[in-house]
Structure formats: C-alpha cells, structure tokens
Design brief:
The complex is a heterodimer. By secondary structure, chain A is mainly β. Helices cover 0% and strands 53% of the residues of chain A. By secondary structure, chain B is mainly β. Chain B has no helices and twelve strands. In chain B, a hairpin with a 5-residue loop joins strand 7 and strand 8. The model of chain B has no long low-confidence stretch (mean pLDDT 93). The chains are: A mainly beta, B mainly beta.
Chain lengths: 113, 114
C-alpha cells in the first residue's frame, strides 16, 4: 500500500513569488492535514480538508491556502512568499476520525531566498 | 487552547539502558495523546496513542507510554534503548471537543550511545 506522497521534495523560490505544493494521501483516506515545521516554531497546524471541505484552520495568514479534490489529493498554495516561509511542509492523511493516527509524507522543503 | 510541553531538548542514554522522554499537556475536554518519531529528512512516524482505557499504552518498536491524568503527563518509555532509536520524538495532543488538529510539543532529540 503506497504511503503519503508529497511533491516536489525540494523547492527554491524568491520573495514575492507564489508556490503550490501537492499531496496524495493513502488510498481510501479522506482527510488531509498540512503542517509547517521550522526550527524556531516547531510543528504548526495549517489546515485540514475532509471530503473537499476545509474542516479546520490554524493561525496562519490568508497567504496560505489549500484545497482538496474529489480524489482526496490536496494542494496548498502560498502567495507572496516571505523569507520566514522557509520550512518543511508536511502533509498527513487519515480516514478522518478524531482518534485516528495520522500518516505523514516525507515533506516538501521550501527555501525562500 | 491546547498545548504540549516537552521539557528536555535532548535526552542522552547508553544503549541497553531504559529511556524516558517527558511530555505534559493542557487541553479542555478529554485528551487524545500521541507520540511520533522523526528520522532525518523524513516525515513523522506514528509510535503510539492514548484515547481511552488502560493508562499504559504499548506501541511500535518496544515503546510504551503512561497516561497520568492527575499530572497531565504522557511520558514515553522503553526498557532497553537501541542506537537505532536515536531520532527526534514529538508528543502531540488533540482535544475530543475540538477540531481534528494536532498540537505538537517542541520535540526531544534522543541520542543513544553505544
């Protein structure tokens, strides 16, 4: 059974640009969550999508957005990139129940220059 | 609001010795508690969880954790450490009352020396 797949693995962008990250969940999983990991702030929740609807949202500015498609694949977009957006972005999937464990992808390492 | 504290940035232990990685939490409602491990350049891997039931939870790779409601703690333990256990460990909490989001602690780096 294939795991959670995130593409691309690495990205280098410059300030002011926008970026789109992709996440393919485990087959059958309907919930996809996104987390930002930085050395200073640790792991922070961005948002969660379930059946194409945003179910939860963390405390990030509106420059961070996401969506989920009918096949449960998800994308997150960051517009007007800032240096502080440099981070490892992790996607996690599950069936959607609250007590479930999350399955994480290997992440997309974004560097903003 | 929910929060997790991992008071030790790093834990050093000799191979074969028992290890403990500490975690305390704050949450409204009943907590759902998790431990994850992260190896270099990888995502997080699930180790174990507490939802309800027995306070001692057994998980992957010989790890276990004890839920203590009065002390709001969920410490990770292993009777005999392996060098291959060296990694970054994260404790996380989710409230049964809140949405489906995990709040993570800052992480504890475990170093197991031969």
């Amino acid at each position: 059974k294939a795991g959670v797949t995130q593409t691309p693995r690495y990205l280098i962008k410059t300030r002011g640009q926008q970026v789109t990250l992709s996440c393919s969940p485990i087959s059958g999983h309907r919930s996809v969550s996104w987390y930002q990991q930085t050395p200073g702030q640790g792991l922070q929740f961005l948002f969660e999508y379930f059946s194409e609807t945003q179910r939860n949202k963390g405390n990030f500015p509106g420059r961070f957005s996401g969506r989920q498609f009918s096949n449960s694949r998800s994308e997150m977009n960051v517009s007007t990139l800032e240096l502080g957006d440099s981070a490892l972005y992790l996607c996690a999937s599950s069936f959607g129940g609250r007590g479930e464990k999350l399955f994480f992808g290997s992440g997309t390492q974004l560097s903003v220059l | 609001a929910q929060s997790v504290a991992q008071p030790e940035d790093q834990v050093n232990v000799a191979e074969g010795n028992p290890l403990t990685v500490k975690c305390t939490y704050s949450v409204s409602g009943n907590p759902y508690l998790f431990w994850y491990v992260q190896y270099p350049n990888r995502g997080l891997q699930f180790l174990l969880k507490y939802i309800t039931g027995d306070n001692l939870v057994k998980g992957s790779y010989g790890f276990e954790a004890e839920f203590n409601k009065s002390q709001t703690s969920f410490h990770l333990k292993k009777p005999s450490a392996l060098v291959s256990d060296s990694a970054l460990y994260f404790c996380a909490v989710r409230s049964s009352n809140a949405g489906n989001m995990l709040t993570f602690g800052g992480g504890t780096r475990l170093m197991v020396k031969p």
